[in-house]
Structures are given as structure tokens and as C-alpha cells.
């Protein structure tokens, strides 16, 4: 595996298998490195020539790992901060746009992005449970004081959760339909008069098209 040995950390980071490299460091005087590689050899781990040893600071999966701790890679964080919000997207992309705004808001308000994300994951949803509760079956400890009994594992009632989610989605649908005046429309029949919004002209239905709820429309400019 590729092995990154960081000064001050007792556990090396491993990634992919390769040929053993214990013999290559036999001449080194770094005792901690020798011990780390000895443990790898005992575990049957193999290394390749891409390995880096005795590094005081490395970047790994968007994080910077060093002896003082783990922090976010500024290059990755700046890419999210600089991301522009879409200005001409369809409503089907609304959730993605909302997710971008939420993450950007967390990064702006919190000096530590990890604490901000932790607070976001611990915040209850509309169903009364936080994302971590639904994923792990328990609440997580945050910077907000909480009595120990609140951290005991407790699985959510799945059936009750499904009912709450169903009611919440129905309420969202009703509010959307009322706000946009959406309602079921009857199927059009040949000779029905319609308004072609893109062309700002009236037209007449000729027949149905091959796709669902699509029609051939006769307009002064031709058949659509």
C-alpha cells in the first residue's frame, strides 16, 4: 500500500497494495519509521515506490493531516466558497441550488467547517430526527451541552417516520400547487383552441403526438 507516516501520529495512512519496502529502509536511522514498517510487515502489507516517508504534513482526500491535527484543505474550501449560484436554472435543479447555498452559508458563518457541518448534521429535520440519528441510530455530541442520556442509542420508529415524511411531502405539494395555481388539466381534443406561449399566438389542436400529453398544433406559422 502507499503509506504516509506523519510525525506525531501513531497510525500511518494506507491506500493501495504493492511490493514490500521494509528492506529499503533498513539503512535509515528513523526508529519510528522502522517500527511503522515493521508493523506493516507483520500485517502482510505491501508497499510500492510511490510511498513517502517522514512527512510532517500531507494532503489526503481534501484534508491536511499534520502533527497538530486534521484540517480542511484551503484549496478545496476556496473552490466551494467561490462557487457561483446559478441564475437561470429550472425548478428541477432547485434542490441542488439550495444545497450549494446551505454549504456556502455554513462556511461563511463557521470558522471551523467541520464544526459547522457537525452542527448541520445534528440539527433535527422536519420529521423530528437529525441526519445522524437516521444514519447512526443515535445523536452525536456537539458543542452544545447535552445530558448524557440524550446520547444513548435509540432507533427511530420507521413506520411513524414514513407517515411523517408522507404528510410533509403532501403539504409541500399542496403549497406548491396553490402558489403556482397548478391543477389537473383535461386532455385536449382535435379542433380545441390553445395559446402557444413560446410564439405568443393562438393555435388549433390537430391531433395527439407520440409522446405523453403532447399535441400537434396548427398555427399561422405552420404545424408544431
UniProtKB/TrEMBL annotation:
GO-annotated molecular function: nucleic acid binding
InterPro entries, sorted: DNA/RNA_pol_sf, Retrovirus_Pol_polyprotein, Rev_trsase/Diguanyl_cyclase, RNaseH_sf
Example of a GO biological process term: DNA metabolic process
Stretches the record annotates as Disordered: 165-186
The protein, known as: Uncharacterized protein
Amino acid at each position: 500500500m502507499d503509506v504516509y507516516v506523519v510525525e506525531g501520529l501513531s497510525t500511518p495512512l494506507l491506500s493501495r497494495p504493492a511490493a514490500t519496502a521494509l528492506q529499503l529502509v533498513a539503512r535509515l536511522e528513523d526508529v519510528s519509521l522502522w517500527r511503522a514498517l515493521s508493523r506493516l510487515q507483520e500485517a502482510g502489507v505491501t508497499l510500492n515506490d510511490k510511498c513517502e516517508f517522514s512527512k510532517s504534513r500531507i494532503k489526503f482526500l481534501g484534508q491536511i493531516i499534520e502533527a497538530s491535527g486534521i484540517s480542511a484543505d484551503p484549496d478545496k474550501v476556496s473552490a466551494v466558497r467561490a462557487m457561483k449560484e446559478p441564475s437561470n436554472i429550472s425548478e428541477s435543479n432547485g434542490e441542488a441550488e439550495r444545497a450549494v447555498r446551505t454549504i456556502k452559508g455554513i462556511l461563511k458563518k463557521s470558522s471551523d467547517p467541520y464544526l459547522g457541518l457537525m452542527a448541520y448534521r445534528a440539527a433535527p429535520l422536519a420529521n423530528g430526527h437529525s441526519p445522524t440519528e437516521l444514519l447512526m441510530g443515535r445523536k452525536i455530541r456537539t458543542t452544545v451541552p447535552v445530558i448524557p442520556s440524550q446520547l444513548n442509542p435509540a432507533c427511530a420508529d420507521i413506520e411513524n417516520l414514513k407517515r411523517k415524511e408522507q404528510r410533509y411531502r403532501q403539504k409541500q405539494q399542496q403549497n406548491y400547487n396553490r402558489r403556482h395555481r397548478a391543477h389537473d388539466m383535461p386532455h385536449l381534443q382535435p379542433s380545441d383552441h390553445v395559446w402557444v406561449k413560446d410564439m405568443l399566438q393562438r393555435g388549433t389542436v390537430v391531433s395527439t403526438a407520440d409522446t405523453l400529453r403532447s399535441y400537434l398544433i396548427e398555427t399561422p406559422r405552420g404545424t408544431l
